[in-house]
What we know:
Elements: H1 4-25, H2 29-48, H3 52-59, H4 64-81, H5 88-118, E1 123-125, H6 141-144, H7 147-153, H8 156-168, H9 172-192, H10 205-219, E2 223-227, H11 234-238, H12 241-245, E3 251-255, H13 258-262, E4 271-273, H14 277-281, E5 290-293, H15 301-304, E6 310-313, E7 334-337, H16 340-349, E8 358-360, E9 382-386, H17 401-413, E10 420-423, H18 434-455, H19 464-485, H20 494-500, H21 505-524, E11 532-533, H22 541-547, E12 550-553, H23 557-562, E13 569-572, H24 579-585, E14 593-595, H25 602-610, H26 618-629, H27 636-676
Parallel strand pairs: 2-3, 2-5, 3-4, 5-6, 6-7, 7-8, 9-10, 9-12, 10-11, 12-13, 13-14
Antiparallel strand pairs: 1-4
Amino acid sequence: xxxxxxxxxxxxxxxxxxxxxxxxxxxxxxxxxxxxxxxxxxxxxxxxxxxxxxxxxxxxxxxxxxxxxxxxxxxxxxxxxxxxxxxxxxxxxxxxxxxxxxxxxxxxxxxxxxxxxxxxxxxxxxxxxxxxxxxxxxxxxxxxxxxxxxxxxxxxxxxxxxxxxxxxxxxxxxxxxxxxxxxxxxxxxxxxxxxxxxxxxxxxxxxxxxxxxxxxxxxxxxxxxxxxxxxxxxxxxxxxxxxxxxxxxxxxxxxxxxxxxxxxxxxxxxxxxxxxxxxxxxxxxxxxxxxxxxxxxxxxxxxxxxxxxxxxxxxxxxxxxxxxxxxxxxxxxxxxxxxxxxxxxxxxxxxxxxxxxxxxxxxxxxxxxxxxxxxxxxxxxxxxxxxxxxxxxxxxxxxxxxxxxxxxxxxxxxxxxxxxxxxxxxxxxxxxxxxxxxxxxxxxxxxxxxxxxxxxxxxxxxxxxxxxxxxxxxxxxxxxxxxxxxxxxxxxxxxxxxxxxxxxxxxxxxxxxxxxxxxxxxxxxxxxxxxxxxxxxxxxxxxxxxxxxxxxxxxxxxxxxxxxxxxxxxxxxxxxxxxxxxxxxxxxxxxxxxxxxxxxxxxxxxxxxxxxxxxxxxxxxxxxxxxxxxxxxxxxxxxxxxxxxxxxxxxxxxxxxxxxxxxxxxxxxxxxxxxxxxxxxxxxxxxxxxxxxx
Length: 694
């Protein structure tokens, strides 16, 4: 429902309109002016915050235009109640507001026309369209962003002028305000006109699609990563971008939704966003031999229909959840899993995916995860608590937050010898379940309280100079990253981003290096003993893995990924299945400490951290790592590239076979046609037309 401040602003705005009516009926110019100021400011605040309440007001017949119209009508009522109905300012106000609304029609039409014309049939990154078609600069954001709100607020000059006239008894201020409002409205409309004429109009869809096909013929992509989904699922394609950059074949990323493109992580791989199914099916992709799919969605059919390429499901994480053995997976030529566990998972599920169609390729994304290291006595061990979210259903086994989260954190912050707690919740936490959201808030409060208590504990000391140095490094790195990334206002619209969206490889590499330096400086900027809530995107999950000595989590791909480190971990049996049944159902927990909702078993995990030589599950973790993620050698990216090359060869062989059969079929058809045709008489000498005279 919005923040408390947004709710307060909405309440003030809605109460302001009855106050306006009351002030108009009394009548009181000063009361009207005060109430009008409240409604203007509250309205502006809600729009600046992009509040959810703005759209809700529109649904109850209290939209933006209606609110401004009511305020203007009440101003006319105020003038009438002040016996100014025969005054020139009264007629001027009526004429002004009618003319002002007349200007809003062309302004709205022009804004809509500009946006529609600049929305091209495709949007791209790292595709050179600039040399093929002319894409003009986008209009200033000041013209198009919140255009209706800006246009309506131009009435402020007229409203203020008319109120001054009503109070002062002279029409001059009112007509000055009226002229300013109408002049600004006309100028706004005139400023938009050039963008619907001449060279400021982007090329038509046919030219854009032809330019994309021309680029594709020149680039000749070989391996495609195809993705469709909602804005919240962008992480599923982002996790594969670095792998695509490391392919031995020429990569291409194809997206189906513009919101995904807007949320796409920086990459040097070419990206084409094609919302239209017909446009995609007509696109020049004849050189593609392998298509990779990160999610099972309906729009996959638009690519699956192409027989000249082989189709592979690679997923977006490896876990024992049902999504990892979706029956839809049998539509693909192959299904790639990280290790043997994925193969066995499909065999047990018996959903129609053949064992011969499964290929184990490892997890290239896990390369940054560092292996276990001994904890020196001088350092406080770190335990990461990374629960998953509550999911779309009410299954208590989805997350440990509600039933076990507080118990886990309380025992960790009170552990003796002490440990440091890092709490990194799933970004979707609390979006479905209020109970999960409340538990999350309580856990954050526990961690922050424990951090404050530890900061005051004389046993823990910090190197203030080193922390200040680290904070200075953070500020310097963040400034440079902001400079390299550019502000949102500098990027123009989607068409301009398509034109200028070819990545600078040097800049891309510098950003990657700076992000590594930022991560190092971040961990140095506070004590190695300090509890921490890490709720944002940075530092990333794998960075948290690398500074942690153990982890507590739930059934999710997070557990499978953490196993790559070889470090001790615990998983909560929130559904209370029992240890044996829990391990039977979930492969990834077979080398874990299984926690009940009371978290009484946490001592086993902490013991393994403090005494690695006495860790009873160390060998089990090593075996499970290979079972789940495959061997360390060859590296996962080498396995992945090999799988791509093998499948591309199969696609090429299939295509050659089809061409041969087509050629043989055509030759056979010609021969059969000749055999079935009646014999033609041979013309006699002197009978050029082959007829016989009788």
